[in-house]
Amino acid sequence: MDTSGALYNGYFYLTYPLFNLFQENDDGAGNEQFYIKAYLDSNVKYILVATTFGELVTVQFTIIATSPDNVKFLPNQYANKL
């Protein structure tokens, strides 16, 4: 499955996808998978947008995060609506 990922600082605006873009990647992990490595501020909300290049494609995926502290992943208002 060919994927792409984008990490946003603060908020993600569907109509302005470059606004607040912190980092993006396509195929950085090989095998058509994205890879984002970033050092994040614990006081800032970040939004990860993961997508496929095929239309109407849904797949299961894994997000791996490492930190000396706790990491929380929460769904946002765009989940399953893009």
Question: How many structurally independent domains?
Answer: 1
Average pLDDT rating: 87
Q: Name the quaternary structure.
A: single chain
Residue share in β-strands: 15-25%
Number of helices: 0
Unreliable residue runs? none
Strand order of the largest sheet: 2-1-3
Q: Helix fraction?
A: under 10%
Structural class, please? mainly beta
Shape: globular
Radius of gyration: 13 Å
Order of helices and strands: EEE
Kindly, what is the distance between the CA atoms of the first and last residues, rounded to a whole number of angstroms? Answer: 18 Å
How many β-strand stretches? 3
Instruction: Characterize the main sheet.
Output: 3 strands, antiparallel
Question: How do you describe this structure in short?
Answer:
The protein is mainly beta. It contains no helices and three strands. It is globular and about 35 Å long.
Description:
This protein has a three-stranded antiparallel beta sheet, with no helix packed on it. The mean pLDDT is 87. It has one domain. The chain is mostly beta strands and 82 residues long. Helix content is 0%, strand content 24%. The radius of gyration is 13 Å and the shape is globular.
